[in-house]
Every structure is written in C-alpha cells, then in structure tokens.
Amino acid sequence: MNSEQLSWLIRRHGIEMTHISGGSHIGAVLSATDIVAVLYNDIADVDPRLPKKDDRDRVILSKGHAGAVIYAVLAEKGFFDIAELKTHYADGSNLSGHVSHKGVPGVEVSTGSLGNGISIGVGMAIAAKMDKKKHRVYVICGDGECNEGMVWEAALVSNHYQLENLVVIIDHNKMQSLDTCENTISLAPLAEKWHSFGWNVYDCNGHDHDALRNAFSKAKTILGKPSVIIANTIKGKGISFMENDILWHYRFPHDGWEYDMAVCELHKDKPEGVVDPYTPDGISNPTFPDAAADIGYDHTTSAGWHPTWYNAGNTEER
Ligand SMILES: Cc1ncc(C[n+]2csc(CCOP(=O)(O)OP(=O)(O)O)c2C)c(N)n1
Ligand SMILES: [Mg+2]
C-alpha cells in the first residue's frame, strides 16, 4: 500500500467512526490524515508484530482529540483488527474518543489534555540519547495547542539537550475548536518562533506527501538540534463542506445528506487499488448515487462559520 491509498482509508474510517459513534473532531482527523499516513507508511520504524520492541520509533499524537486518525492508521497497519474501529467512543471500548494507550497496541501514551505530548516526547528522546539508542521520537501537535505554555517549555529543554532525535510536526490548520488561531492567541510568526528557540524548521504543505516525506527525511540528517515540521493543512481536508468550517470540530456526519455526501465525495477521489472497507449506510453505490440517495440537498444545519479568508474565496490561505 502507498501513502495516498493509506490516507484515503484513514479518511474513510474517520467518516465512518464519527458517524457511527456520533463522536467529535472529524475536522481535526481529516487535517492530520496525510501527516499520519506518510509517517506510518514511509518514515516511522514501527512493527505491528512487535509493538513494544525496544528500538521502535515513538509516535505521539499530542492533539489527542483526533483519536480516530491514530486508531485508523494503526488498524490499517495491522496493530489490531479493523473491525474494532466501529467501537470508537462506545462504552467499554478500548478506542476512547481521545487517544488511550490502554488495550491499544501501538499507542505509546494517552493524550487529549493539550500541551503534554511534546514534554513526554522530550523525556523519551533524552532517555534514548542517554541509552545511546538510535530510535526517533515523533510528536504531532495542533497549532491551537501551541497556546499551551508547556509546549514552549518543552521547546526550550529540547534545544538545551540538543535532541536531534526529536521531530515535532505541527498540524497548522489555522483553527482551533471555536475560532481561528489568529483570533484566539496569535502564533505568527510561527516558524520564526521555533527557529529562535533553536530548532531546525521546515515549512511545507501538510497534504503533499512528497513534501512531507522530504521534510521527514531531511530531519533525519540533522545533528545537534531538534526539528519541527510546520505542516500547513486545512481543517476538514477532503470533504468540501467540512473544509475550513469550524462547525466540524465538534459536529459529526449525521445520517442523510452529511454522511452520504461525505462518502460520495471520498469515492470521487478513491485511488486505484483501494477497496472501501464499509458498505455505506443508506447509499447503495457511492460512485454513481441513484435518485434514492440522500445527497445534493442540504437539509441539515451544516452551513457553518467560516473564517474571513475563506468567505473571500481563498480556500488555500496560508
Ligand atoms: C488542556 C486542554 N484545554 C482544552 C482542551 C479542549 N480542546 C480540545 S480540542 C481544542 C482545540 C485544539 O486546537 P488545535 O490544537 O489547533 O487542534 P486542531 O483540532 O485544529 O487540529 C481544545 C481547546 C483540551 N483538550 N485540553
Ligand atoms: Mg488547529
């Protein structure tokens, strides 16, 4: 499987998992999908047969509210049964809404309280250096999460200990839960901030797999300092009516138009060789939906709030 195929499957799982569970954060899942797909497909040294092997790379999803993205990639990579994904958010399930490591092979640490992931990663990276181990630590962090003071304490410490084995990826979708980052606590100039904290900085399109692979590969060659990849992304990427719409931080794809439209849109972009793991609920053929399919008529309240740049027609604003 290549990373594009994997990212399609992660998006498809994300839609199904949040639809079935009525769970939040699909926008955050779709935003991080390509980062996660490239990391697990082409970069991180992890093995589903030996999830605890000593020299595995450590991956932490610090923006733990996007739990579905990490569960989906781990299931696709064989860490546990894909059928378990349907239990996401259910009472008693291992796959809780925010990321849990309990009973989930491949998850290093539970997350969801924003700001903790980099600090945990710093501890792992220091330990690896002390033990002269060669594995690397990858931490995926939200941009709104960078409002947390702990992020910057961790950035200071990483520089102090020259943690070249630590790579932070910021999912820079310019939004947080209720508004833009700019309207909440401005991060700009983000790259310069990390640079001034002594980090090696890459800035790339977080949906361009080659650009992501390139940044990850370059980070492996850096000595004496940690690396941050500022991955410019779009919240809700891949489903037109979710893109850059803050509504989809918390809203789930409801029965009817929202779910059917999301599945049909994904099917328009399905890469060769990928089989949809689900029988879509309520739509017999998402490739050629017939008159009975409940798409094309938005009878829900899904028209949401967009930032001003989006309303001006510039959906690619960086
Ligand atoms: C310490 C803490 N405060 C508040 C929250 C509630 N919360 C969940 S997601 C979120 C917004 C996160 O924004 P960002 O990091 O940009 O992630 P995105 O969803 O945009 O990828 C907030 C404030 C939390 N999970 N943890
Ligand atoms: Mg964000």
What descriptors fit this protein?
Rossmann fold; binds magnesium ion; alpha/beta; 318 residues; 37% helix; 5 strands; five-stranded parallel beta sheet; single chain; binds thiamine diphosphate
How is this fold's topology laid out?
Layout: H1 3-21, H2 26-43, E1 58-61, H3 67-76, H4 117-130, E2 137-142, H5 149-160, E3 166-172, H6 181-184, H7 190-196, E4 200-205, H8 209-221, E5 227-232, H9 247-250, H10 257-268, H11 308-311
Parallel strand pairs: 1-2, 2-3, 3-5, 4-5
Helix pairs in contact: 1-2, 1-3, 1-10, 2-3, 2-8, 4-5
This protein binds thiamine diphosphate (TPP) and magnesium ion.
Give an overview in words:
With 318 residues, the chain is an alpha/beta fold. It has one domain: Rossmann fold, CATH 3.40.50. 37% of the residues lie in helices and 9% in strands. It contains 11 helices and 5 strands. It has helices at 3-21, 26-43, 67-76, 117-130, 149-160, 181-184, 190-196, 209-221, 247-250, 257-268, 308-311, and strands spanning 58-61, 137-142, 166-172, 200-205, 227-232. The chain has a 5-stranded parallel β-sheet with strand order 1-2-3-5-4, sandwiched between helices. Strand 4, helix 8 (209-221) and strand 5 form a beta-alpha-beta unit. Helix 1 (3-21) packs antiparallel against helix 2 and helix 4 runs parallel beside helix 5. It is globular and about 60 Å long. The site of magnesium ion has 6 residues, from loops.
